[in-house]
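1st attempt posting a full record on here, be nice pls
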Amino acid sequence: MSFKVNARTLLHLGAELISSDAVALYELVKNAFDAGSNRVAISVTMRLPKEALDELLDEIDAAIRNPGDPQLGKAKTDERSLELLRSKAISLLSVTTVDQFADAVRFQSSLASLRAHMFQANSILVSDTGEGMSLADLNGAFLTIGTTKRRRELDERRLSGFPHQSKPILGEKGVGRLSSMRLGTQLRVESCQLSDSKVNLLNIDWTAFSHDSDELLEDIPVQAEPGPPKENPSQSGTKITIYGLSSDWSQGKLEEIAKDQFSRLNDPFSQVSRYPIDLTFNGALVAIPPFTRMLLNEAHAIVKLRFALDESKPSLEDVKEVSSDVPHLTGSIDYRLRMRSQVIDLTGIHLSTAVKSSMDVLRRLGPFDMELYWFNRPLLEGIDSIGSKRAIQRLVNEWSGGVMVYRDGFRVGAYGSGPDDWLDLDKKALSSGGFKVNRSQIIGRLSISSIANPFLVDQTNREGIKDSPEKLALVNILRHVVDGIFRPFLNTVEKDVLAKEPVDFADVIQRVSSERKRINLTVKLLYQRYPLVKADQEVSGQIEEAMKTIGETLVYLHRLEESYEKGRSELVLLAGIGLTVSAVAHELNRATADALVFLDKLRRQQTVTQPSSALAPLAAQLKTLVTRLKVLDPLVTSGRQVRESVDLAQWLPEVVESSARSIRDDGIKVEVLVDREPGDERFQVRVVRGMIVQIVENLLSNAHYWLRRSRLSSPNFEPHIVIHVDTRNKAVLFSDNGPGVEPSMRDTIFQAFVTTKPPGHGSGLGLFISREVAHYCSAELALEPVAAPNMSTTFALTFSQESR
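the predicted structure (as tokens):
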């Protein structure tokens, strides 16, 4: 047994799957290109409105079915009806006819011939001069739905040594020919190859495959036949004529398709000439407007992007292995309006983390290029070589819409125009306020290849790329560049963030407040379900103490927000306190939530484990968290700016230990090495203790995050953090063997809001605040140009003479 396919299934693949007449024509154009034709001609003939033609054909059908006047007989009745209907047809055609079609009506000698002639009054002809199809091709490949011929050609090219030297193949699904069902009910194919002596003919009545039919596909006969001799021995190519048009056509409709669709058929940014398409309506040429490339020179900002597999750099996710295919995203932002620029450079684990895609998926994605041109619409001006300000605005209106996608120079789907917001640019712009970097400001192009990007496959309805992990990775990369790099860069330049207030203090307070509310709910639920937790004085005491400290800090931050006016540096320090408390509060909430889950699990298993034993890990973790909160006391009391003499060689290991437990729980080795100078075992500095804690917390948290990401990418990776207290040089070195810092980021990582972490995993303030705090303590925090041995990153906290 096997599947049996109902004939009406073709409707789903053709007429109902294709969303518009423009897409249907595009599919036929692609077929002509794949056939090797140097150009394609589309001729639309509309001699009378569809409604009028349908009504006339119905009248002719009624006359054919009429049994005839008994007094006149069938023949006389048909002759009278023929005369009347011929006159009506001529009157309908007299206004719009553009050829001798109306004259031929007079010579139709029967109702049947009149009907056949009038049925061809409106038509769409798509013709090419490609390789054509033999009779065997028409009866074989053409009538085989889903043929793999083009797909096999693509696979062969991927395996060849010079795939990019080959002419691209646009169609690979083998269903493009069904797009003609969208346009009309009758299909006539005339095709021949150079070696043929005759033209090969195929006629298909698509109404046989309607929803009213219960026939199986195999039971409807469709057969190609030899036609008349070729007019020219050198003739080859295909003519596809569609009759029984499904909708009305006009010159305006074809002009709209020419402007919105065919003008974008080929990559408008490329210098290569576009594929020639000759459009005519009732014999009159319909021009396809070219893209004015000079418009791009007037863009206020340009983003250029290149994604490829770097074959010259070692893999960063596992220091023990060397790979020749490391995903590498490079590019630049040129904000020409403000004469500012920024380099984009993300590799390996940094890129994988930023776009939330695995390394394997990124490797499969394949190389691509993107160009994005951003226009600040209120600042558009007239350009002598193009036109007035209104003309420039009109051009931006016509071509903007986001990022268009081109495969091998030909457009994919409707991406980058119309209602399709495939990158959610408008949604993000609205949520970020100010509606900056929205689709109406962007003219963009993404360039991919059928050879190099085999996992980016068209949807069957030709309306975009089919969902897949590789498409998601592509979307995430583009969103990260637009939302995570480009938009923040524009905002930073415009607002001059670094010269003004770089920290949203209200946002910090909101984060602390939010974490406190979450803890309250979790603890309340924990106490309700398990009164024994509240009865355990050690556990409940630690929770209450932590909650009290967080609450006091929140009150203090609120008070300072209302009254503090001592400048930028103090505000940064206070924001650092808030971020640290927020992080600890988050860990506290996670610890209590984990305890709740663990106790629920014990209850379901009806285990005999003693409650006190089950709560022991929670008690230990709470003690650590409370200790971490307590070290911030000097910063939230009246003496918070008072410096005191501290021996870092003795005290710093204790600070590290308070944060290292959760890091070690993730399988990360944490070491503290104290290098004491003979005869001087002390590392005495005058600092505010809580500020040093902030620096340590931020650096360890940053290393912890990237080492965990590296461990996820490579299970055999052995993560390692080393804190080296150098008493001779009065410095503390923080090193790890994670993915390292991208070269392009070395000069920017200490700037506010700069981060390669995905949204929700970092604000880009940690290193900025740490450096500000270090300055306050008369110290310098810097990224070392050369990391410590066997390490990839080393930050140095160096204390000046003023701090000793």
